[in-house]
Each structure stands twice: as C-alpha cells, then as structure tokens.
Amino acid sequence: MKLSARNVLPGTVTEIVTGAVTSHVRIDLGGGSITAAITNEAVAELGLKVGSPASAVIKASDVMVGVNE
Fold it and tell me: Quick one: CATH architecture of 7-53?
C-alpha cells in the first residue's frame, strides 16, 4: 500500500478500549505512544489485537501554534 501521508509511525498495539461505536487504539512507538479513535468495524477489519504491529498514519492539513500568556 502506498500513502501520500509522510508521517507514518510504526509501532505495536498495547491497548484497545472498545466503546459502543468507536475504539481507542494505543500504539507504542518505542519512545512514546499515540492513541487513535477508530470505528469498531475498522478494528475488526484490520485484525488489530494487543501485541500486533500497526502504524499510526498522520495526515493534517493544519497545524496550530500556541503560547502561554
């Protein structure tokens, strides 16, 4: 699979918290972690399980910058 996104962070699934419609999938990146909210259907279709390899793919059109006053 080829993607246009340049921010692909490979890691390992460490937690899946399933809700009524969406799941929160935590991926250990080996120096931090990231959590994605995806549909329960997507979790099933991808075959995600704790311990399985997965990549966080980040594609953002905007980045906001803030400072403390």
Answer: Beta Barrel (2.40)
**What are the boundaries of each domain within the chain?**
7-53
Handedness of CA 53, 50, 47, 57 (dihedral sign): negative
Per-residue pLDDT tens over the stretch 18-61: 999 999 999 999 999 999 999 999 999 999 999 999 999 988 77
Strands (E), the chain: 7-18, 22-28, 33-39, 53-58
Q: Classify burial at 25, counting beta carbons within 10 Å of its beta carbon; exposed 0-12, middle 13-18, buried 19 or more.
A: buried
Strand-by-strand arrangement of the 53-58 sheet = 33-39, 22-28, 7-18, 53-58
Contact in structure between 41 and 30 (CB atoms under 8 Å): no
